[in-house]
TrEMBL record:
Annotated protein name in UniProt: FAM3 metabolism regulating signaling molecule A
Cellular localisation: Secreted
GO cellular component annotations of the record: extracellular region
Gene Ontology annotations of biological process type: antifungal humoral response; antimicrobial humoral immune response mediated by antimicrobial peptide; ATP biosynthetic process; calcium ion homeostasis; gene expression; glucose metabolic process; insulin secretion; mitochondrion organization
Family to which the UniProt record says this protein belongs: Belongs to the FAM3 family.
Membrane spanning residue stretches: 83-103
Stored InterPro entries: FAM3, ILEI/PANDER_dom, ILEI_FAM3C
Record keyword Mitochondrion present: no
UniProt gene name: FAM3A
Length: 304
């Protein structure tokens, strides 16, 4: 009875590549007719006898020059894929932080506008322009722009600004408790002198010597701080009244007072504010609110 034997048949490309070509994959087996007992060529008997060892061999790494198994491809790509995922995560985190924080250098103003609320992005009004001494409107020609701010309690000092120049302030270190007075040339707008007079523990005669000899047309800017009136006498009140004040006669202990007058005015000055010290209405404990006054003063044509 005719027998059969197995013969190993190499792939066609193996014959072309020659004996040095790598053997990729197991040789194919073909049944051929053989007289006599069946035999095996090309593979050891132990390889055919153990299917488990045959399966184990198929999972080994391929020889050099052969296609890499899918498992090895996945392992080689795992590292770069993790790095790419980390870079993308960091980039997205930075992008979201830039949009939410909106800080300087965010680099995404257009994206921030898309995330901004309609009220802020559409209806927000532009910042109002400020003019000399912070006035909301410019003064007419031949007028002097000014701002006078009284002290707040006994903590924050007063300010006197004229034509964008700070004449008196805590920063300039020329203010003090009592009355802070700046004398200005009514024609040129130049500062003549600025001094603070302590009306609680000072000498009122120093104040009288300062305002008695004023020349016609001299502008007088006054801002109170802490207590403006304890040492004030009748002569002092009359001198300020002659400068155009209508509230100086009622000025009392710890009142807030701002005033702009001039030597030789015919009528009462329109530039004056006064708030009484009252425990029922005081903004601060023991002191009324601070006062702020601004405006435009016409220059004097001549000065005596």
């Amino acid at each position: 009875m005719a027998g059969w034997r197995l013969r190993a048949v190499l792939p066609p490309w193996a014959a072309i590549a020659g004996p040095l070509a790598p053997r990729c994959g197991a040789p194919s087996l073909r049944l051929v007719e053989q007289s006599g007992a069946a035999g095996l060529t090309g593979l050891p008997l132990t390889e055919l006898a153990s299917p488990h060892r045959q399966s184990a061999r198929s999972t080994n790494a391929a020889p050099d020059g052969c296609p890499t198994p899918a498992g090895e491809v996945d392992m080689r790509l795992a590292g770069p894929l993790r790095i790419m995922a980390l870079v993308i995560s960091v980039g997205l985190t930075w992008l979201v932080a830039s949009i939410l924080l909106g800080g300087p250098g965010g680099g995404f103003p257009r994206i921030q506008q898309l995330f901004a609320s309609p009220e802020n992005s559409v209806t927000a009004e532009p910042r109002a322009r400020k003019y000399k001494c912070g006035l909301p409107q410019p003064c007419p020609e031949e007028h002097l722009a000014f701002r006078v701010v009284s002290g707040a309690a006994n903590v924050i000092g007063p300010k006197i600004c004229l034509e964008d120049r700070m004449l008196m302030s805590s920063v300039k270190d020329n203010v003090g408790r009592g009355l802070n007075i700046a004398l200005v040339n009514g024609v040129s707008g130049e500062l003549i002198e600025a001094r603070a007079f302590d009306m609680w523990a000072g000498d009122v005669n120093d104040l009288l010597k300062f305002i008695r000899p004023l020349h016609e047309g001299t502008l007088v800017f006054v801002a109170s701080y802490d207590d403006p009136a304890t040492k004030m006498n009748e002569e002092t009140r009359k001198l300020f009244s002659d400068l155009g004040s209508k509230n100086v006669k009622d000025l009392a202990f710890r009142d807030s007072w701002v005033f702009v007058g001039a030597k030789g005015v015919q009528n009462k000055s329109p530039f004056e504010q006064h708030v009484k010290n009252s425990k029922h209405s005081n903004k601060y404990e023991g002191w009324p609110e601070a006062l702020e006054m601004e405006g435009c003063i016409p220059r004097r044509t001549t000065a005596s």
